[in-house]
Design a protein that fits this description.
InterPro entries: NAD(P)-bd_dom_sf (IPR036291), NmrA-like (IPR008030), NmrA/Isoflavone_reductase-like (IPR051609), PCBER-like (IPR045312)
GO molecular function, one term: oxidoreductase activity
CATH superfamily of the largest domain: NAD(P)-binding Rossmann-like Domain
Radius of gyration: 23 Å
Number of strands: 21
GO biological process, one term: lignan biosynthetic process
Helix content: 25-40%
Strand order of the largest sheet: 3-2-1-4-5-6-10
CATH topology of the largest domain: Rossmann fold
Shape: globular
Oligomer: single chain
Domain NmrA-like: 7-139
CATH architecture of the largest domain: 3-Layer(aba) Sandwich
Distance between the termini: 29 Å
Number of domains: 2
Protein name: NmrA-like domain-containing protein
């Protein structure tokens, strides 16, 4: 990209999984004035140089005032967002005279009628494009990136379960499709809005196609096998009929089954002739925007192992150590909190942290009271939030759908390290969603009934600290199945199926 144009850019959802890399990429260009519009009660924080305005998404006058003087509006709402929010933003943008809107597409090719006919929930996105055109003030650019690569690999949506060494392939798994990393989505959006007017005009009321990789399920599996130093013989590989799988998924999706919606989207993406392989017939923006290529194996290693090079992780041949390698025999405990766990200082501290801070929902507690200044959080979707205040705010946001919750450990492994302790744990996370109490279907170890239970795994790093407790949390990594919570929210009417894919 030889020349750039500075713009005033507003973003909604700028602290989310897609918004975070988008804001970072906009800042990296160094020419834009960026405004983040957030809810009045949002605890999200942004880098220096980002103006933050807070208010109600239902207040059109607030939205219009926030959008006055903006050249572009980026909408990157979470799947739980009320659909009316995007409509309100579009109306306010028209009143404020915003020339460009990037609506909340960020997914499959909604410009391909064969795909949207097969996956009907995708058709709802047209409502917002039509609203923009009908108002006649702004123009839209639809961002098509297909499934996010890093999110989908970590979550198993590609049909590849790294932890259990299982793969589920549609047919023989050789149908190609495009997929894009969250980082490249952010860089592409920033690149598009940095184009001169004459170049940006080419995307008026049409789609911009992004891609990190044009790969098949088999390509991804072979790369994962290399990244994990395994062989195909180590994996249980199942082949399913893509047409039958799609039909079954459509029936289940009609009932609000979130897992079926995922099967339908990914299954259709990897079906021949349904547009998942859009690079075969359409140009992607990589070259126009000067975006560098990404390496599939490197990306797989980073997402599976959190390490940049194969020699730095455990394999059949070697194992190198970091500064936080366990120094003594592990403390292993099966079951919930007990006198046994309380005999260990780190676990005694952590039980209090879990019960008296997290489950007590004391979100106003300053991060510094319990966290190291460099505390970081890895969310279930793989997004990493760094900095104690920012990461603590992100922890709060993870639990916002719940009126109450309770973490009930089932297995804990803790070891001393050179700077404190590291712990891996499994827990059942019980919860009641916001709103009137629904049917209670799960019971915790104390006998209390809850609306739902979500299994989760956590990895924590505690460090010795000069604070009053002598312990601080340095990092938290969360791995969980969000399916039970999402299904419950669908049934309770807190979200709608069309919201699940942005």
């Amino acid at each position: 990209m030889s020349s750039k144009q500075a713009r005033n850019i507003a973003i909604v959802g700028g602290s989310g999984s897609v918004g975070t890399p988008t804001v970072a990429a906009l800042l990296a260009h160094g020419i834009h004035t960026i405004t983040a519009i957030t809810r009045a009660d949002s605890t999200a924080t942004f880098a220096a140089g980002v103006k933050v305005v807070k208010g109600s998404y239902d207040d059109l006058s607030f939205l219009e005032a926030s959008l006055n003087g903006q050249d572009a509006l980026i909408i990157q709402l979470a799947f739980m967002a009320d659909p009316s929010v995007q409509s309100n933003l579009i109306s306010a943008a028209a009143k404020a005279g915003v020339p460009w809107i990037i609506p909340c597409e960020f997914g499959s090719d909604t410009g391909n009628p064969k795909f949207t006919d097969e996956v009907p929930i995708m058709q709802t996105k047209a409502e917002y494009r039509n609203q923009i055109e009908k108002l006649g003030v702004s123009s839209w650019i639809g961002i098509i990136n297909n499934p996010w690569f890093d999110f989908s690999l970590r979550g198993g949506q590609f049909g590849i379960n790294v932890a259990e060494r299982k793969a589920r392939l549609y047919g023989n798994g050789t149908v190609k499709a495009n997929t894009t990393t969250l980082s490249k989505v952010g860089k592409s959006v920033a690149g598009l809005l940095s184009l001169p007017d004459a170049e940006l005009e080419k995307f008026r009321n049409t789609w911009a196609y992004l891609s990190s990789f044009r790969v098949s399920q088999r390509d991804i599996l072979e790369s994962v096998i290399r990244a994990t130093n395994t062989t195909e013989g180590d994996w249980a590989i199942e082949q399913v009929d893509p047409d039958q799988t799609s039909e079954d998924a459509k029936k289940r999706a009609a009932t609000g089954d979130y897992g079926a919606i995922v099967d339908l989207v990914y299954g259709t993406t990897f079906r021949q002739g349904y547009g998942g392989d859009y690079e075969a017939t359409k140009s992607v923006v990589n070259k126009l925007l000067g975006l560098e290529s990404e390496d599939l194996d490197q990306t797989d290693r980073s997402n599976i192992l959190g390490q940049p090079k194969p020699e730095t992780y455990h394999s059949h041949k070697q194992c190198s150590m970091s500064s936080s390698v366990p120094l003594t025999q592990a403390f292993i405990h099966h079951g919930s909190w007990s006198d046994t766990t309380r005999a260990h200082p780190a676990l005694a501290w952590f039980e209090g942290y879990t019960k008296d801070l997290i489950d007590a929902q004391k979100w106003d507690t300053p991060a510094a009271e319990h966290h190291d200044p460099d505390f970081w959080l890895q969310k279930p979707d793989g997004t990493v939030i760094k900095g104690a205040d920012q990461a603590w705010a992100a922890v709060h946001e993870l639990y916002q759908p719940f009126a109450a919750h309770f973490h009930d450990p089932t297995f804990l492994v803790l070891s001393d390290t050179s700077d404190g302790w590291t712990m891996a744990g499994q827990a059942n996370v019980f919860g009641n969603l916001q709103g009137p109490l629904g049917e209670t279907k799960a019971t915790d170890s104390t006998g209390k009934a809850w609306e739902l239970m979500t299994p989760a795994m956590f990895i924590f790093h505690f460090v010795k600290s000069s604070n009053k407790a002598g312990v601080a949390l340095k990092s938290t990594r969360i791995f969980s199945d969000s399916g039970p919570a999402i299904v419950a929210m669908l049934k309770k009417g807190l979200i709608k199926p069309e919201q699940l894919l942005g």
